[in-house]
Specification:
With 386 residues, this protein is of the alpha/beta class. The chain is built from twelve helices and 13 strands. α7 links the parallel β8 and β9.
């Protein structure tokens, strides 16, 4: 071991001050580890991500590899991401620090890291955000019997990590079963924020006692825009006001429709310290994406002690962790009737109860995050190079 200093290496495509929830999560971990005396090194790219950037201090010594493409062409983006992942893994080998903590952006970064770590006998942790290659199947880009898809699955299965860091217990079960792994695992929810209490109400939140509904964040392949649209269609504008701030593959079509609707206010971005003023946050996940994604915006809204309206199955981590603070919409059933029932139930008293439940869950999420950070520190301390 190099002196008495404890080292670790984190790999992810984006990192503050560049926007991106995965990079922000990596920076939070780096902050905790730095405060515990760990020398943290980061391998990232100059790639861009839609959304608001980070205002927090940047922790760790950051190393960059080139980003080759930030556009929307799927094939070009995939090819560029594969090259970026390869270069990031190669950079990790050059730095000769261990253990490695590998996140999942760019897609298949864990494929490169797993193969190299196995070859070099380097201990590593797999921090599962969006799962690849499973996301390719969820997005209907490949069939499950596709030989490249099967090759990737088998390679990842064979080069298993020393530790799995999962977003929730349901995702952890899915990963362990998918790869037939039986490895140590810890839970680290993504999107855990501290409650902001002192911020003055922005103009959009001053709605004369109306209940504020809102969707803030990515609207991509994994999400259900029809659910959001139905909420806006059925909304009684004398009782409710809708805030929409979104980006992603499915966002523009929804924004075009929302511009014509009464009671809907479109914002370019919403700072984290203003999320608290939305009473009911919407979150969605298509059934085919269960466990492949665990939308962080649902966790963030609960941490701001807001209620949640969730459109997805009831078997994933979002509902498993957060259900007591929200209402559930089944995306496979009739959306119109379910939305109508939701509005019939939504009143100040029911809202207050859901928000009270959210405050309790937020404390549990904070505790789970701290326990997860402590377990990662223990893993790092136990896997220093000698």
């Amino acid at each position: 071991m190099r002196g008495d200093t404890v080292h670790c290496l984190i790999l992810n495509r984006n990192y503050p001050p560049v926007a991106g929830i995965t990079g922000a999560s990596a920076n939070e971990l780096a902050e905790y580890l730095t405060m515990q005396g760990v020398k943290v090194e980061i391998i990232t790219t100059h790639g861009q991500y839609a959304g608001a950037g980070s205002r927090k201090a940047v922790f760790g010594q950051v190393h960059y590899v080139p980003a080759f493409y930030n556009g929307k062409n799927k094939l070009m983006r995939l090819c560029a991401n594969l090259i970026e992942g390869f270069l990031m893994a190669r950079k990790a080998r050059e730095l000769q620090q261990a253990p490695w903590i590998c996140m999942t952006d760019p897609p298949l970064l864990n494929f490169w890291v797993g193969r190299l770590a196995s070859k070099l006998n380097i201990p590593w942790a797999y921090w599962s955000m969006d799962l690849y290659p499973q996301a390719f199947y969820a997005a209907k880009l490949v069939q499950p019997k596709n030989f490249i898809y099967q090759f990737l699955l088998k390679s990842i299965k064979r080069h298993q990590p020393n530790l799995l860091i999962a977003l929730g217990s349901k995702q952890a079960e899915f990963i362990q079963q998918s790869y037939d792994w039986s490895i140590p695992c810890l839970i680290l929810p993504c999107g855990v924020l501290k409650r902001n209490r002192a911020e003055a109400k922005p103009a959009w939140a001053q709605q004369n006692g109306k209940i504020l509904l809102g969707y803030a964040g990515n609207l991509g392949q994994a999400h259900e825009p029809e659910f959001i649209l139905e909420l806006m269609r059925q909304m009684d504008t004398s009782r409710f006001h809708f805030i929409l701030s979104t980006y992603g593959a499915k966002a523009q079509a929804l924004l075009n429709l929302a511009k014509k609707m009464q009671g809907v206010e479109i914002l370019e971005t919403i700072p984290q310290n203003q999320l608290q003023f939305i009473d009911v946050h919407l979150a969605t996940l298509s059934p085919s994406w269960d466990h492949v994604c665990v939308p962080s915006k649902a966790v963030s809204s609960i941490c701001q002690e807001a209620a949640l309206l969730y459109c997805g199955t009831n078997t994933n981590d979002n509902w498993h962790l957060l259900g007591d603070a929200g209402w559930h919409i089944d995306p496979t059933a009739n959306l119109s009737s379910q939305v109508s029932q939701f509005y019939a139930q939504l009143n100040p008293a029911r809202l207050a109860q859901k928000k009270s439940n959210a405050a309790v869950i937020a404390i549990d999420l904070q505790e789970t995050q701290q326990k997860g950070f402590a377990a990662i520190l223990q893993f790092i301390q136990g896997n220093q190079k000698h």
